[in-house]
Amino acid sequence: MSTAVASAESFLSRIVSHKRDELARAQKKLSSAALQHMAQAQAAPGDFRRALSTGENIAVIAEMKKASPSTGVLREDFDPVVLAKSYAGHGAAALSILTDEKFFGGNLENLQKARAVCALPILRKDFILSPYQILEARAFGADAILLIVAMLDRSELFELLSAAEENSMQALAEVHNEAELDRALLAGANLIGINNRNLQTFEVMLETTERLSRLIPPSCVRVAESGIASRDDVKRMADCGVDAVLVGSHLMRQADPGEALSKLTGVARR
User: For this structure, is 125 an active site residue?
Assistant: First the structure.
């Protein structure tokens, strides 16, 4: 095994181990029954898939994350309320909110605060391993959840897709290569996120979307993730048939994230 592959597997293993410990603590603090009660008090989930697949232009999912494992803190003045309002006012089709605390500096309260001031569909972006986390996402106001296929086998992926459906939520299945794409499609995923970041080298290459997008059936919604930092990047992704792009780090680094977002919108679908 190469050093790069071992490093990637070690990083994922560390995340999974931490998440399982975190999950155990969360379940002791708040029962599934309590979460179900909170979820029932929420408005009906928004249609994340429809938000990404309708209209003449490429949809932009605007992401909030305070930090990332590779670059550290991205934004010191991180305010989910200000960001949610700004993104909604500058053309976002949906929001993505990092709720992982250890690796991304997030939490569920940020999701809850954004939900209170924004009607756009919200994706909970975290390392989802259990149906409990999906119920948790709904309870705090998310409409959709991210499933990282690299961390899940086929049966786990199927279980989590089913749990999302049971909670009237949608799931964005994130893939990095052909094997993961095959696993996602076999499990029944119809919202596919192509992450341009290579988990082995951590290099970002837009060619990943160009390569994998053509392998995805037309019935699926295609989302390009990572490495999108300009209008030309959005046009390049549009050229390979994606329905939406997810942009996070680029926006978080800007003085005015909403204004930066507006420069990425309005690119016609191909």
Answer: yes
159 flagged as catalytic = no
Q: Over the stretch 125-181, which tens digit does the pLDDT of each residue have?
A: 999 999 999 999 999 999 999 999 999 998 999 999 999 999 999 999 999 999 999
Return the DSSP state at 152: -
Number of domains in the chain: 1
Is 32 known to be catalytic? no
Q: Active site includes 65?
A: yes
> Of the candidates 55, 48, 86, 104, which has an alpha carbon nearest to the alpha carbon of residue 246?
48
Does 114 fall in a domain? yes
pLDDT tens for 78-92 read 999 999 999 999 999
Q: Are 206 and 196 in contact (CB under 8 A)?
A: yes
Check 19, 86, 113, 174 and give the catalytic one: 174
Domain housing 25:
3-262
Residue 165 lies in a domain: yes
